[in-house]
Amino acid sequence: MIGIDVGGANLKVVDDDGVHIHYCPLWEGAPLAELLHAHKKQGQDRAAVVMSGELADCFSSRKEGIAFIVTTIKTVFPDAWFYGMDGRFHREPVPELAAANWLASADFLRARYPASVLLDVGSTTADIIPLADFNSLTGLTDLKRLQKGYLRYTGMLRTPVATLISSVSLDGIGTPVSTEYFASTADVHLVLNHLRPEDYVCDTADKKEKTRAASLRRLARVVCADLEEIGEQGAVQIAQQCWDRQRALICDQVRQVARGSGATDVIVAGIGAPLFARECGGRDLTQELGPAADALPAYAVREVARGSGIT
């Protein structure tokens, strides 16, 4: 059995050969079936699946998105089981399948870390999940999670800078930012050495290079400038202030959820695990799970399926 997590932007697969992460923007018609076929071995028809890609705006509704993902996966893995928001596995495209990937992670980790808050910082979002009371988590839609503070829609790569800051200080001068999509958090974290160029696994705002120099240029655009106008120092100031805001947004919410749930510690997964484990005072799950921590829902749903007797 393999574990599959179909997001709107990324496809994550965990199998006996390891962890595989593909940039797979569903809204651009990415070849989901073709990517899945690359991980299918002879006689292997069974998969455990979670999803969040049903919300991609190429679908008119979540129902349509769920149906597309289920149908596509079953063409490759006919014996696929889909984990739902009710904490159960399903064979058909039912509404409970919408955005259940985070719950599979909680299901897998709750016995190991019952007094923890799980922070999973991916390319697009930050899931903040108290693990003490699993039953209270079942049935929570993303809307409800946003309202409860269990979901922050900001991540390491794909968040537009202008959604985090409305102005910056450039050499002490307050400067409003443009709301055009000129730069993303991938540029911020690359410039601040939080990520390597090879970690920049999404499209850039300008469809150009994924280098520090190109990221500095994109960040200068945020204040309607060329890099020559504000210099590298100015672009770094933009990056630092954007990071300061993102760090506060996520870490403050983690602390609030921990207080509300009585959690005594924080565990951190996702591409942002090393960075946010340090900033939020948590434990980096990469040390326990290795690369699987960056594909936690795919790994988790496979383990939960095995534990439930689906093998």
Cα-based radius of gyration, to the nearest Å = 20 Å
How does the major sheet shape up? Answer: 6 strands, mixed
CATH class designation of the domain at 2-103 and 295-307: Alpha Beta
Order of helices and strands: EEEHEHEEHEEHEEEHHHEHEHH
Number of strands: 13
Could you please say which CATH topology of the domain at 2-103 and 295-307 applies here?
Nucleotidyltransferase, domain 5
List unreliable stretches of 5+ residues.
none
Strand order of the largest sheet: 3-2-1-4-5-6
CATH homologous superfamily classification of the domain at 2-103 and 295-307: ATPase, nucleotide binding domain
Q: Give the mean pLDDT.
A: 96
> How many angstroms does the end-to-end distance come to?
6 Å
Helices and strands: which structural class? alpha/beta
How is the secondary structure organized here?
Blueprint: E1 2-6, E2 10-15, E3 18-23, H1 32-37, E4 46-51, H2 62-76, E5 79-83, E6 89-90, H3 101-109, E7 116-121, E8 126-130, H4 142-148, E9 151-152, E10 167-170, E11 173-176, H5 185-191, H6 212-221, H7 227-261, E12 265-269, H8 273-279, E13 283-284, H9 286-289, H10 296-307
Parallel strand pairs: 1-4, 4-5, 7-12, 12-13
Antiparallel strand pairs: 1-2, 2-3, 5-6, 7-8, 8-9, 10-11
Helix pairs in contact: 3-10, 5-6, 5-7, 6-7
What does this entry show, briefly?
With 311 residues, this protein is α/β, with parallel strands linked by helices.
What attributes does this structure have?
311 residues, alpha/beta, Nucleotidyltransferase, domain 5, 5-stranded mixed beta sheet, 13 strands, 19% strand
How would you describe the overall organization of this protein?
This protein has a domain at 2-103 and 295-307: ATPase, nucleotide binding domain (Nucleotidyltransferase, domain 5), CATH 3.30.420. The chain is built from ten helices and 13 strands. The longest helix has 35 residues, at 227-261. By secondary structure, the protein is α/β, with parallel strands linked by helices.
